[in-house]
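Researcher: Before we compare anything, I want clean individual predictions. No alignment, no superposition, just each chain on its own. First chain goes here; please echo the sequence and then give the structure tokens.
Model: Echoing the first chain and its structure:
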Amino acid sequence: MNLADRVIVVTGGANGIGRALCERFARESPRSIVVADIDFDKAKLVADEIGGLAVACDVAQEEQVQQLIADAESKYGPIDLFCANAGIVTPGGPETPDDQWRRIIDINVMAHVYSSRALIPKMLERGHGYLLHTASAAGLVTEMSSVTYAVTKHAALAYAEWLAMTYGDRGVRVSCLCPQGVWTDMIAGDDPMAKMLQASAISPEKLAEVVVSSLEVEEFLILPHPEVLEYFRHKASDYDRWLRGMRRLRAELYGRAE
């Protein structure tokens, strides 16, 4: 996809990866960029900087996602590229309270469902459209400090795969962004997993460059960290060996489970 003269929507666009995507997309001369975020004030700062439109949106609420799409289409016309980028992380294992499970599922998974549910019929009618879903390397090789993050990112990747195989021959393109460590608030702090990710973290701006290049050739799996593909190959080639290695790594980071 060439981004020139395209209508683009980015959720979670006020900070981190979302902000970097908005700023990088703006250099490609799109027709418009809609910066959507639950924090409207920060979204407006980004939108004002790039000449876009800020929209307040809690992507966990389907009616707000529908309104976001309606607002963007009313002002600019059909959406060419929708980036379902908003996401959260909550630490913990199975003891994580149900309300936190529901919240992260709503944001990391159902928000992707809500946007595609609204957009795909229109894209199919036009015969073209592009969905970029931000997942994580955790969707390919899991995550140790947060079971909710690991589960929802696996689900986000699976959903993107399903969309790509179901609608790819009918003009709807899908890419799934699966970065490892990126210098955002998500890997800040002293948690052992965060520290490990920091060692190979890249800037949001570098990630955005990779995304633009990948969209040009319409790659499904966007991997700003090439080593993630090798990790994934090792996992697929010998699952039990991979699990043994992950148990050893977890013990090194967190100690043996009681």
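Researcher: Okay. Second chain, same rules.
Model: Second chain and its structure:
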Amino acid sequence: MSEPRPKVLILGAGFGGLWTARALRRFDADITLLDRNNFHTFLPLLYQVGAAELEPFAIARPVRTITRGQDNLHFLNADALRLDLEKKLVYTSHGVHAYDFLVVALGTVAWDFGTPGARDHAFPLKTLEDGIALRSHVLSRFETALHEPAAEKRASLLRFVVVGGGPTGVEYAGALSELVRGPLERDYPALAGEASIVLLEAGDRLLTAMSSRLSAYARRRLEKMGVEIRLGARVTAVWEDGVQLLEPAREGGSPDHRLGATTVAWTAGVQGPPVVRSWGLPVTPGGRVRVSGTLQVEDRPEVFIVGDLAQMPEGQDLPMLAQVAMQGGRHTARAIEAIHAGRSPRAFRYRDKGLLAVIGRNSAAARVAGRDFTGLPAWWLWLLIHIVYLIGFRNRFAVLLNWAWDYLFFERVARILLPFRRQAPAWPAETSDS
């Protein structure tokens, strides 16, 4: 009598989970891929949804379409609620599922560092819904400002604050500047020149994962685009109409002061999904799960953590990038096959393919193969890589069409204000130790 096929349960259809599933397409197993959404989001372009550069459908693709034809895989649209490590069971919103191998690839969620008011008034940018909500809110500020007679109130309505000087913050600030100073100034000529964008970074430079040369380039480029950059600026509170800042190095005035703004885009921090904290896994204070060099959980060799959620051993930290998740997914698939065959899995080795950040039209910062690139060459490289890794011909075509239209006509095709869409921040559930 033949042995039963192993059950592989994958939580999360992001880069890590999806690449694990696809790499197991020839493995003789019953694979269940679970996600609370029925679509995969290409997160590197999410900020462009928030800046009205792309429609949401351009960066999202149904998981069932992506996995169509993979006979050993079943997709389950559900929430993972509870994990029983001893009995190897996952409790979901659609029943209980047993596993022989568990892959947790749930990614990370926005984190406000406990900043008062951030959850009520700042907009995170981690999900497709976040991007739609932020876009609608930005557009609504111009509609509201058009009917506001008080100059001070208009200035607050049209001041857009971006918190966090990492790749997402830099890219969103640049894209927002092009939106505000291009199409929106033509749409609202009565408000021309009144909008302002402020990028706040608590550290001493932007893009700290890149070289100081690329960091300085990004700052010069953003300032040329009209973005006000404040380094060493820590947000200590967020209100409906502004943020409280602590700027010890600020020249003149109090280092603790208030900046009026009704739009705060929060790109400053992430943590593991709060639900994971109750699962009995070795979780760090930041909510990520500690793993061994093989991406396995200690004393639980059947459990793998892939992507942003995985906290590697000390000295082996990896950046939270799509490439890390994709390579981790392929590694996990090989490890599962090895264990099933009675072999020991190899350690995960990440091949660094570089870092990229686009900063508006014809401009980007890139670190590839140990070399720094800026300007047009880096921009073309950024375009090529993002098109290549987009899943699906329709998505690639839609993104290329939108980019071409924007590039040729300085126009944004996604400036549709949907009043029935959520325009308020929606942060993940809080936990007592987050």
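Researcher: What stands out in the second chain?
Model: The mean pLDDT is 94. Additionally, The chain has twelve helices and 26 strands.
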